[in-house]
Amino acid sequence: MGEIVRQAAGILESDTPGTAWDKLRSLLSEPPDARFIASRVAQAIGLRPGVASVEEIAHATRRFVEVLAREVPVVLVFDDIQWAEPALLDLIAAFPRLVVTSQVFVLCLARPELTDEHLGWPAPLVVRPLADGESQALVVQLVGENGLDQSSARRVVLAGQGNPLFVEELVAFLQEEVSAQGPEGDHAVAGQEVALPPSLGAVLAARLDALEQSARAWLEAGSVEGEVFHARATEAMLSAPETASEAAELAAARRFVEPTTPLLPSESAFRFHHLLMRDAAYHATAKRARANLHERFADWLESVVQERLPEYQEIVAHHLEQACGYLGELGPVNDSQLRLAGRAAAHLQPAAERALARSDQAAAARLLERLASLLPERAAERPGVLVDLAFCLVGSGRLREAAVALESAASCAAATSDVVNGWRATLEQVWLDGLLGRYPLQRQVDVAEKAVAALEPLGAGRALSRAWRLSGDSLYNLGRCQAGVAAYQEAAGVAVACGDQGQEILALQQLMVALVPGPMPAKAAIELCRDLVGRDPDNLLLQASAQTSVGVHLAMQNRFDEARKELAGSRRILTDLGPSPLPSQRCFLLHRLR
Amino acid sequence: MLEGEYAAAEPLLRYWCDFLEAAGEHTVRSSGLVVLAQALLALGDLDEAERLSRESQQIANSDDLAVQVQSRSVLASVLRRRGDLAQAENEARRAVELVTHSDWLNLRGERLEVLADVLAALAGRTRR
After folding, report:
1. Nearest beta carbon to residue A400 from set B24, B32, B60
2. Of residues B19, B61, B107, nearest to A437 (C-beta)
3. How far is A22 from A178, CA to CA, in rounded Å?
4. What is the mean pLDDT of residues A447-456?
5. Which residues touch A217 (CB under 8 Å, ≥6 apart)?
6. Counting Cβ atoms within 10 Å, is residue A62 exposed (0-12), middle (13-18) or buried (19+)?
7. At what angle do helices A164-180 and A200-209 cross, to 10 degrees?
8. Burial class (CB in 10 A: 0-12, 13-18, 19+), B12
9. CB-nearest partner of B60 from A398, A437, A479
10. CB of A510 closer than 8 Å to CB of A473
11. A55 to each of A4, A40, A61, A149, how far by Cα in Å?
12. Between A223 and which of A67, A175, A275, A282 could a Cys-Cys bridge form, CB atoms 3.0 to 4.6 Å apart?
């Protein structure tokens, strides 16, 4: 996402956040919803803070692409999407259905496990092995009609098993062997029938082994960044940076890499000839060296992006985690490892908070799991992180894992005398037990009330808001709508007071649901909903909730035409937002007049 | 469901309930099962509607008002359609009783509607 947005808007990593924002805004100056699109897209890539939901971000992203495609057709290429977060897969899958007014071509590359795990995906175009004749043609294309003797070419075709990369690498291997024999070696090598490596991995390793030390070190450094890597990063990672340009020329001449479009626009970059080539270089590096290179890359990236660090924090954290992990494999925990873990955690925490703010619970859960694994047992942040993790795990349908996280959270909170997070763990535990049918609703209300009494004097706004919301949910399900609405109002009020917009929006949405069947007169309910939506007019889910609630209340007043308009507006928003991870909520929002 | 497309709703509801069952979740699933039972009732599959409404009652919290009263209403409707009007009246009256003190007004109205249907059937039988 970040690459697409930065490339389209011409945002450089050296731009200040203000300049980057201006570039994004000017790219989107025309459409009436430009401010909405820009703010959501900026939030998604970490350029600006915000609490828009993952659905709003997906909608804004589709609109962003539509705007780009007004003038010329747009081609979006997503590589290796078998590794994508569920939210990104949902976004890509919805493109053909929702982007209908623009010329957009979406190409996704994936390994077969994508369709094994996501049954609803369209049938893929499967890339099948080359036939022998096609492999033969590839050999000729690579070395010409007489580049290899017939017997060697035949052996390459058979050994390559229709895998074009394997064929290419075998040809390169043979050429390098020939070259190593000197100018007279061509026929001799062919005649001796050089033994071909038995697998693709083996031929890649053999070619790397035969490479000069400086070029190999350069490739190893590049492999730490990934399939695409930046020249200046690699230079900064090498202990002998003066060898970098010569090493780059050599590696390119041997077709290990080729120049490519950089991911950071003001840099120059190379791409490994294939991801497996990158993997071979990476695995050829000793673990201690890998740890060192990962840390150096994280240092370099931090130094390059500076103020725009939030956009890159997950990447920086990944490299620091890798460095920490490799050191952990090499010996007992030491200061270096603890320092790296602390640095990684410091980057993961805000990244997880951003995912939580956009209600992308699957992504937040993964980030929080990584964060929890980095924090020492007695770390002050640990109980809070584990409670957040449990909340996200429940939201992702991983209830058993949530129970384990909550147990750890409660014991960590007790060990560190963390009263607030102790209560947060209790509240989530009660909620989870309620979902598992193990905790009567009235007892949930009782616990929530006790939590409110304990948390109020502590000024723990976020936990207090959660307690009120739990109380609201339980009261509503007990059939006490008015009391539920009052609890949601408390939850929203506390959230506003402590500046937690995410908690506020959650409470308001639930409040507007509870208004519909409850006893509040329709006129008062309509006024309340219109007042509440004014608190964040750009929040589409809040607007949809309000329009639905208002529509139903208008119908109660026999004002059917107005009611239909409100419900149509709500329906339009929900259709634009695409599929929901919360079907029960959508069922309410899609309320229709009968 | 709201548009009367019960056959289309059924597989979606089943998928949702199966997903929640696999996750070990009970509360939201119990609500889903009641709605699924309503769809099956509308499609005329009385046995499955009865089985699911009983299951939802069993796995829901005993004080989860919506599930407890809606499942009884489905049962009352199943029994009415089978002609077991005395038992249907029991279930319908129990649902009304449970919801009497609630300010969840729609839920109260709908339970009274179900009871009215049962009473109308009883009156018809008496008249015959």
Report:
1. B24
2. B61
3. 56
4. 97
5. A238, A239, A240, A243, A247
6. buried
7. 30
8. middle
9. A437
10. yes
11. 19, 10, 10, 59
12. A282
> Best interface-test mutation with A: which of B16, B30, B61, B107 has the largest number of A CBs within 10 A?
B61
What's the Cα-to-Cα distance from B17 to each of A101, A301, B33, rounded to whole Å? 36, 46, 7
Which strand (E) or helix (H) includes residue A78?
strand A74-78
Question: Is residue B127 exposed (0-12), middle (13-18) or buried (19+ Cβ within 10 Å)?
Answer: exposed
Residue A203's nearest CA partner among A179, A174, A178, A164 is: A174
CB of A394 within 8 A of CB of A432? yes
Mutation target for B interface from A361, A441, A443, A553: give the one with most B CBs within 10 A: A441
Tokens of A242: 């003066």
Q: Of A55, A50, A53, A21, nearest to A38 (Cα)?
A: A21
- Interchain proximity B61–A440, CB inside 8 Å: yes
Rounded to 5°, angle at Cα A305 from A299 and A310? 95
Interface test with B, best of A438, A474, A478, A549 (most B CBs within 10 A): A478
The DSSP code for A414 is: H
Is the model's pLDDT at A29 over the cut of 80?
no
Distance from CA of B10 to the nearest CA of A (A): 14
Q: Flag if B23 and A442 touch (Cβ within 8 Å).
A: no
Model confidence at A289, pLDDT cuts 50, 70, 90, reads very high
Task: Kindly compute the dihedral angle of the four CA atoms of residues A508, B101, A453, B25, in this order, to the nearest 10 degrees.
Answer: -70
Q: How many helices (H) and strands (E) does chain B have?
A: 6, 0
Of B25, B103, B104, the CB nearest to A399: B25
Nearest chain B residue to A476, by CA: B104
What average pLDDT does the segment B19-32 reach?
A: 89
Alpha-carbon gap, residue B19 to B12, rounded angstroms: 11
Look at B105 and A517 and tell me if their CB atoms are within 8 Å: yes
**Chain A residues within an 8 Å CB radius of B34:** none
* C-alpha dist (Å) from residue A486 to A263, A489, A523: 50, 5, 17
| Set of chain B residues whose Cβ sits within 8 Å of the Cβ of A478 | 63-65, 102
How wide is the angle at C-alpha A355 spanned by C-alphas A357 and A486, nearest 5°?
A: 30
If you ran DSSP here, which 8-state letter would residue A129 be given?
A: P
Q: What is the DSSP secondary structure assignment for residue A194, as one 8-state letter?
A: P
Fill in the amino acid letter for A415: A
Half-sphere exposure of residue A539, counting CA atoms within 13 Å on the CB side?
A: 23
| Residue of chain A minimizing CA distance to B13 | A583
Residue B104 to residue A518, Cβ atoms within 8 A: yes
Q: Which of A374, A458, A466, A462 is nearest to A417 (CA)?
A: A458
CA A502 remoteness from chain centre:
19
b/e map of A305-334 (b: 16 or more CB within 10 Å)?
beebbbbbbbbbbbbbbbbbbbbeeeeeee
**What is the band of A503 on the pLDDT scale with cuts at 50, 70, 90?**
confident
ipTM of the complex: 0.88
**Sign, CA torsion A18/A22/A23/A24:** positive
d(CA A190, CA A424): 72
Reply yes or no on whether the pLDDT at B104 is more than 60. Answer: yes
**Among B28, B34, B63, the residue to mutate for chain A (most A Cβ within 10 A):** B63
Quick one: pLDDT at residue A578? 63
- The reply to whether residue B65 touches residue A477, judged by beta carbons under 8 angstroms, is yes
Amino acid B34: pLDDT: 95
DSSP state for residue A72 in the 8-state scheme: S
- Beginning with the edge strand found earlier in the chain, give each strand of the sheet holding A228-230 in spatial order: A228-230, A269-272, A257-260
Exposure on the CB side of residue A164, measured as CA atoms within 13 A: 13
